[in-house]
Amino acid sequence: MHPPSGRALHLEAQLTISTRKRVLGGLVAASMFVALAGCASAPTDTETTAAAGGDVVEGFLPCMVSDAGGFDDKSFNQLGYEGLERAADELGVEFLTVQSDSESDFAPNLTNLVDQGCSMIITVGFALASAAGESALANPDIEYVSIDDVVDNDFDGETDAPNIKPIVFDTAQAAFLAGYAAASYSTAGKVGTFGGMNFPTVSIFMDGFAQGVAYYNEANGANVEVLGWDSAAQDGVFTGGFVANQDAINAAQGLVDQGVDVLLPVGGPIYQSAASVIRDSGRDIALIGVDADVFETDPTVGDLLLTSIRKLIDVGVEDAVLAAGIGEFDPAPFVGTLENGGVGLAPFHDFESKVSPDLQAELDEIAAGIIDGSIPVTSYLAG
Fold first, then answer.
1. Which residues contact 305 (CB under 8 A, 6 or more apart)?
2. Which residue of 20, 38, 65, 223 is surrounded by the most CB atoms within 10 Å?
3. CA distance 375 to 344
4. What number of helices (H) and strands (E) belong to the chain?
């Protein structure tokens, strides 16, 4: 993916938003989950809900604001961009994108898109929720899609504006499977994880991963340790941002120095720093990707990847844009789960021959248990 090109256009701007409201907003999402879970059908890889042959709304202009990390992060921003690009191509319309380099860009980027006459604005990432809510309330005639947050900045248990469609993912379920797989693969008896920032949309991966390791230990009489995340404290190792930089290298190095042989970085491109540390270590350490199947989005680290924890951001965005493009915007929230296919575990790819021959069958059985409720997985979305 080479964003933005073709029909895409770039815009830039600057301003500041509140960090406190973003963090609290994610915690309140738990109270909304029951109301959200059954509201919208799942997007799929093979089809979209926008009806074929529908008339495109005249002047329809879908737009997108990235989180920090940019549209080439080979993760959630890139997935959002790819979904928008596919939908715009199918509809035969242009689209606008604006990249955020920091929190201070969010609000002015949204204002810029409003001024450009966007019909729909998609915000990619939990961190944009506060700015997205304010923008949607100020512009009721524009349709908004919020990726990774329900946009409940006033904490009343409801999305702040009727023109916002939340698309969120209970990735703890897929991360549980990854944790089980990591524990099964590990010979060191230590697996590690670290994140960009302690946002609910980041920690949900880390906590689900730890739950999966704990389940493996209980089921197999093992004692695999999880380093980098404390389930009781709901805190762990974080880099302070979503950039592949020295902070990310230091976080990964600290875990590698403690002897882990599986590493789960959660936070867009910070996996690139983890990969660098793994290669420099000269040890057999497996990497786990997040959001996309990183084996496909970044082949340069394919040989390191045990698997990836997927959430179908691209398909969710494509589905929402296609529907809006023919005048059928649906603000009903979508919550991705294992059951509806919104989250899942990527194939083992090059590690297929390295994992236990029984592992996939075990994971299939566990996934079925998570879906039918016999194997509980806790998260801020599941309660």
1. 286, 287, 288, 289, 294, 295, 349, 350, 351
2. 65
3. 16
4. 11, 15
CA nearest 268: which of 3, 74, 19? Answer: 74
Going by pLDDT thresholds of 50, 70 and 90, the confidence category of residue 381 is confident
Q: What is the pLDDT of residues 223-239, one digit of tens each?
A: 999 999 999 999 999 99
Phi-psi domain of 117 (left: phi exceeds 0; alpha: psi -120 through 50; beta: other): left
Residue 161 has pLDDT above 80, yes or no: yes
pLDDT 10s digits, 7-23 = 444 333 322 222 223 33
Mean pLDDT score of the chain: 87
83 contacts 317 by C-beta, under 8 angstroms: yes
Classify domain 172-310+344-372 by CATH architecture: 3-Layer(aba) Sandwich (3.40)
Q: Report the distance separating Cα 375 and Cα 132, nearest Å.
A: 35
CATH 3.30.43.10 correct for 8-170+313-336: no
H or E segment and range at residue 235: strand 235-236
Q: In the chain, what are the domain boundaries?
A: 8-170+313-336, 172-310+344-372
Ranked by mean pLDDT, the top range of 31-35, 42-46, 141-145, 331-335 is: 141-145
Q: With 80 as the cut, is the pLDDT of residue 176 above it?
A: yes
pTM of the model as a whole: 0.81
What are the backbone dihedrals phi and psi of residue 262, each rounded to the nearest 5 degrees, phi first? Answer: -140, 135
Using the CB atoms, write b or e for 65-83: b if 16+ within 10 Å.
bbbbbbbbbbbbbbbbbbb
Least Cα distance to 237 among 208, 264, 277, 259 occurs for 264
Lookup: tokens for 201: 């949309």
- Supply 383's token pair: 């309660």
**DSSP at 150:** -
8-170+313-336 shares its CATH topology with 172-310+344-372: yes
Cα(259)–Cα(238) distance, rounded to whole angstroms? 18
